[in-house]
Task: inverse folding
């Protein structure tokens, strides 16, 4: 309760400047989240120079606000325009955009806001009450555990698609192989560069994602002559803020998403992305309304959004307690703290409790503000759909260019983005799903790095994955997902050879028949 | 989506600027440019991700350099290939309009023939930091170097050392240490600094090879204990910790970690000289000096363009010969 | 356009909209069946060949003194799995085609896409990226937006040209000044024009 009193004290002592910083931070975070290619890391870098001149508590509050709001902003474009702002919003495309197609955009946005709120509150509770035990547990995770978690994430994307596993696997492998291009992280070997300098620098996943989802979307919509878009459908704004009974109905999805997100937050590199995909997978396999997931069910929006915002807690704790940034975003925050001569880490709780309380209070306020803004913005945002699509598409191209360029201030990434847009189009034409391609490009390098490090540390002894208890538990979970996949692949193959309907997919249930 | 955003962004920019001003007092760039050469922003490329040591030094220096030369010096992070990608990015810009941070690990890849650029393509501007490294252990494991060396001799090839990556200077120093101690360690490369620290904290590795300044918080809290400093002479504050020279490692292997600025070799000399003197003013500023002390940077950290160029040439030769000696050169 | 993995709306020939891409969802005549199948598995065959080339490339990757599995193992595993998946897909497609069944899993078939328009937009995008290198971002963007809108049917140039200029200059200001991104300035005279323009709007 000591902590709570400290936070309450801090909250009441927030001056107007701090409140302004929080409001600004949330708005900036949501904006960079909305713009494809610009992530919250970019947002943090953008405000970094300003924080140097600020008192440290204001600077930190601002960064916390940008970070947490940045995990949510992209949900808006994912739901409305089918463009994910950040990789962890990819699962929102499926049910979220489907809801928009059905004229339920405001409802989907409302659920996204509620889910972000639940995830944010979970993150806050975790940071406030369980930081030290969580950090102790997190330290027991080594390369072996991270490797299995990443592989679990990779495998789960295969389980998501209801089309042929072979096609998902192909797309996944292509994504992972493309990510091996360039200088390898551990050995420094240059792989698959064919003497081309652009390839030597490697293929970053962000331009790949922006190309496939943002530019790829524009290519397809232009190809269709902007006909039959969502803007032409009547947008029935029934409700944007879910009522109590609805909340109770979806409480299961909320808590499952929050749970997955809290657990995955500490995975360095891709916690939010893995969490979001896993949460969607969990919803689809064990959720109460699993047969509806994928057809525009709020559960398919709630679980991934709650999970990705909940990862903020898991990412923040190692930074605060150990001084170890678990993600690029927390690395920037660490850098800002260091420039104020503040070293987060084992001693910060004893030496600078006020700063820790400020972080906790800022987190709480940001979550509330973000939800509030999200809910307030959802109705005006839906009006975006009324702007003629060609104008929106042109602006999307500009953002895609800048987003790709901004990653390393280099044209190579713009080219990679363009190539992925074209590749994505042709793969889609052939019926290959795109999510495994993008997820493979994101998680592939992490999987390899953790695997190689684990193997070097164990002197090439593969048993390291099963002799460590946590790793062994994760392996069991992975085998579970894998056996489900094999079962389904076999079932599909039987159906293909037996079916006369010329389809490889599972029978579509009646309620799936949606207007296209 | 266009119009409202553009408007909001402008309002935001204005609001952010107001916030900045109210919280710090006036700090607008009103001074006159020091020389006529600089009329466009000069990029400062950090060839590593945001939040690291190179990023911190660049961001501390850029403000002060910008004030001196009268144009913006925006910091750009271009991560990839141990610093190679960022340096190539700097070289592809107009000569004299871009500079980049060069650190020892990147230079080592040049010497090893693994970088995407050649040594003669770059020109030294100034060295900002030179700092000692050390072998460190977790608290309550090994009290000093002697205990660690004994344990390593008892279990050759079993003790794990977290390092930067293949063919790095870490590997050279470690190989020399192994020779002197008469044992073998197992070097485990972690490319992300935070992963190295977590590995030592969590017991995934037994020893960490790192600059003292980058793990200050763990040293201050007592979680990490340096047992051997990589330096010619005792390090301030760690006088009782033996240095590599104390245990008989030749001076040629004691390669200090450094961070400096370089430009394209085609950059006009007067631009380089002006930048070099702006660097000196930056390094002399009070704020920067405090930062230097925080990271245990040595007193002779600053070098001007000519000195730094000579230093780089020496280091390049030394690293190449050491890599050859320990058979770590790329084919 | 729909990528949603969870739903699959099976397209039976009756509901497939008219359009050039929907053609292959109808059962082809027996004669060109094999040729048709070969055309459909062309990309997969090409990918299989690429697998061999890439596998051959990995032979040169060595671990050196670092130990561990080396830099070649991981890509080899990926290439192996990819090849298995591709062979499976090729065999399935061939069996289905020879058996007189076509596999309808073209996700975009319902979109009524025009190949010509797709080619135009792809060409326009590639041209835009190239143009930014030579003309600089501001000028190239203004031209691109105008052309894009024109080809999208927004033919009122008195409206679209000012809009395109405002967009490109506005974006340049925001991203060069506020978020510092060194957008390309082009070569020669265009470099100078961009430079003066950015100076004029206070971005430099």
Result:
């Amino acid at each position: 309760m000591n902590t709570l009193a400290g936070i309450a004290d801090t909250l009441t002592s927030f001056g107007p400047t701090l409140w302004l910083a929080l409001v600004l931070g949330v708005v900036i975070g949501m904006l960079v989240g909305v713009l494809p290619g610009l992530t919250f890391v970019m947002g943090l870098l953008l405000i970094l120079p300003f924080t140097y001149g600020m008192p440290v508590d204001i600077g930190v509050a601002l960064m916390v606000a940008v970070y947490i709001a940045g995990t949510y902003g992209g949900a808006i474009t994912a739901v409305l325009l089918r463009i994910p702002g950040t990789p962890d919003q990819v699962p929102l495309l499926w049910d979220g955009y489907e809801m928009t197609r059905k004229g339920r955009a405001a409802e989907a946005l409302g659920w996204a806001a509620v889910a972000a709120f639940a995830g944010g509150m979970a993150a806050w509770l975790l940071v406030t009450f369980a930081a030290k035990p969580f950090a102790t547990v997190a330290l027991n995770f080594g390369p072996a555990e991270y490797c299995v978690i990443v592989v679990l994430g990779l495998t789960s994307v295969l389980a998501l698609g209801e089309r042929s596993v072979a096609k998902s696997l192909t797309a996944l492998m292509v994504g992972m192989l493309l990510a091996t291009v360039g200088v390898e992280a551990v050995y420094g070997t240059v792989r698959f560069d064919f003497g081309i300098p652009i390839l030597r620098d490697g293929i970053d996943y962000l331009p790949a994602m922006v190309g496939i989802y943002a530019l790829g979307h524009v290519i397809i919509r232009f190809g269709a002559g902007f006909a039959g878009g969502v803007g032409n459908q009547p947008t029935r704004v029934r409700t944007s803020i879910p009522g109590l009974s609805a909340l109770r109905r979806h409480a299961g999805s909320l808590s499952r998403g929050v749970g997955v997100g809290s657990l995955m937050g500490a995975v360095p590199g891709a916690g939010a992305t893995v969490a979001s995909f896993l949460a969607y997978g969990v919803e689809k396999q064990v959720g109460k309304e699993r047969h509806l997931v994928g057809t525009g069910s709020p559960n398919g929006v709630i679980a991934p959004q709650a999970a990705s915002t909940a990862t903020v807690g898991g990412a923040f704790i190692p930074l605060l307690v150990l001084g170890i940034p678990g993600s690029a975003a927390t690395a920037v925050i660490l850098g800002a703290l260091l420039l104020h001569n503040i070293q987060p880490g084992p001693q910060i709780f004893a030496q600078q409790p006020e700063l820790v309380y400020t972080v906790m209070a800022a987190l709480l306020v940001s979550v509330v503000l973000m939800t509030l803004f999200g809910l307030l913005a959802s109705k005006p945002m839906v009006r975006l759909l009324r702007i003629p699509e060609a104008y929106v598409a042109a602006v999307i191209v500009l953002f895609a260019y800048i987003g790709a360029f901004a990653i390393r201030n280099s044209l190579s990434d713009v080219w990679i983005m363009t190539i992925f847009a074209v590749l994505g189009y042709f793969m889609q034409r052939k019926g290959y799903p795109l999510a495994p391609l993008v997820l493979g490009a994101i998680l592939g390098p992490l999987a390899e790095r953790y695997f190689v490090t684990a193997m070097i540390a164990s002197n090439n002894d593969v048993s390291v994955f099963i002799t460590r208890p946590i790793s062994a538990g994760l392996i069991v979970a992975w085998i579970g997902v894998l056996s489900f996949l094999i079962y389904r692949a076999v079932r599909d193959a039987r159906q293909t050879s037996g079916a006369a309907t010329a389809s490889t997919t599972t029978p579509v249930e009646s309620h799936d028949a949606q207007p296209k | 989506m266009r119009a409202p955003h553009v408007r909001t962004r402008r309002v935001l920019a204005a609001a952010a600027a107001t916030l900045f001003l109210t919280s710090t007092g006036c700090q607008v760039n009103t001074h006159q440019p020091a020389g006529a050469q600089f009329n466009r922003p000069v990029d400062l490329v950090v060839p590593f991700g945001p939040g690291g040591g190179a990023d911190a030094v660049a961001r501390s220096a850029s403000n002060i350099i910008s004030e001196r030369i009268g144009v913006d010096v925006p910091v750009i992070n271009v991560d990839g290939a141990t610093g190679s990608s960022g340096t190539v990015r700097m070289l592809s810009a107009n000569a004299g309009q871009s500079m980049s941070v060069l650190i020892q690990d990147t230079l080592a890849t040049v010497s090893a023939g693994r970088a995407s650029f050649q040594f003669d393509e770059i020109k030294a501007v100034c060295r900002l930091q030179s700092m000692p490294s050390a072998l460190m252990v977790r608290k309550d494991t090994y009290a000093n170097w002697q205990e660690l060396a004994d344990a390593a001799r008892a279990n050759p090839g079993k003790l794990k050392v977290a390092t930067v990556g293949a063919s790095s200077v870490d590997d050279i120093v470690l190989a020399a240490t192994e020779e002197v101690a008469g044992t073998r360690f197992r070097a485990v490369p972690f490319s992300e600094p935070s992963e190295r620290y977590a590995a030592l904290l969590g017991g995934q590795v037994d020893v960490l090879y790192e600059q003292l300044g980058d793990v200050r918080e763990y040293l201050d809290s007592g979680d990490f204990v340096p047992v051997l400093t990589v330096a010619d002479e005792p390090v301030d504050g760690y006088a009782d910790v033996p240095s590599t020279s104390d245990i008989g490692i030749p001076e040629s292997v004691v390669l200090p970690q450094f961070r400096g600025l370089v430009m394209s070799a085609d950059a006009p000399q007067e631009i380089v000289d002006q930048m070099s003197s702006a660097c000196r003013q930056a390094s002399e500023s009070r704020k920067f000096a405090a930062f230097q002390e925080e990271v245990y940077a040595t007193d002779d950290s600053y070098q001007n363009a000519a000195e730094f160029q000579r230093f780089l040439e020496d280091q390049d030769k030394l690293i190449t010969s050491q890599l050859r000696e320990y058979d770590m050169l790329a084919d | 356009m729909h990528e949603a993995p969870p739903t699959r709306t099976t397209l039976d020939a009756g509901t497939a909209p008219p359009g050039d891409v929907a053609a292959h969802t109808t059962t082809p005549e027996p004669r060109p069946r094999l040729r048709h199948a070969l055309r459909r598995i062309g990309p997969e065959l090409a990918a299989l060949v690429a697998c061999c080339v890439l596998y051959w490339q990995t032979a040169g990757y060595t671990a050196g003194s670092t130990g561990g599995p080396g830099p070649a193992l991981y890509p080899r595993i990926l290439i192996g799995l990819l090849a298995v998946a591709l062979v499976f897909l090729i065999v399935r497609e061939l069996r289905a085609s020879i058996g007189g069944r076509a596999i309808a899993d073209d996700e975009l078939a319902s979109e009524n896409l025009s190949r010509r328009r797709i080619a135009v937009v792809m060409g326009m995008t590639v041209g835009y990226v190239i143009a930014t290198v030579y003309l600089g971002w501001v000028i190239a963007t203004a031209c691109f937006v105008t052309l894009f809108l024109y080809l999208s049917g927004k033919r009122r140039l008195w409206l679209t040209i000012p809009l395109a200029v405002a967009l490109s200059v506005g974006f340049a200001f925001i991203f060069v000044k506020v978020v510092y991104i060194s957008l390309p300035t082009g070569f020669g005279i265009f470099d100078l024009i961009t430079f003066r323009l950015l100076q004029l709007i206070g971005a430099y």
